[in-house]
Amino acid sequence: MKYWDSSALVTLLVDEAGSAERRATIRDDPAIVTWWGSRVECASALNRLHREQHFEPGGLDRSLERLRRLAAGWIEVEPLEQVRNRAIRLLRLHPLRGADALQLAAALAAAAEDPQRLELVSSDHRLSNAARREGFKVL
After folding, report:
1. What is the spatial distance between Cα 108 and Cα 51, in angstroms, rounded to a whole number?
2. Is this prediction's pTM over 0.90?
3. Which residues of 101-139 are buried (b: 16+ CB within 10 A; e: fewer)?
4. Of 126, 136, 137, which Cα lies nearest the Cα of 93?
5. Coil/strand/helix, residue 58
6. What is the per-residue pLDDT across 77-87, written as a single tens digit (0 to 9) for each?
């Protein structure tokens, strides 16, 4: 099992740099744990790509359906007070945006506060750097 942030999940839904590598990762270990808000973040990214005309006709709908199917099988870290408080602490320590701090806080919760117990999959440079500083192995 690995913790997947939304930037990594999107690479499973559309063809972009890193998609082949991420698909190989999910084939080797299909168990996904992610933050409760990841589905919204992924839908936001897909709709942005649609607005920027990166999809062929019907591409957005196909990607949203892939997201729905993928989300049906993943494990979500719920929006708990502990996660929010941890995210606020992380914002003081790392140059993260709010949603990225929530992702990292959820990963820490999923790892029972021991980052060496869980690998983190991310395509976000800033989040990856903060995760490494927190002790995660980042793919």
Report:
1. 34
2. yes
3. bbbbbbbbbbbeeebeebbbbbbbeebbebbeebebebb
4. 126
5. coil
6. 999 999 999 99
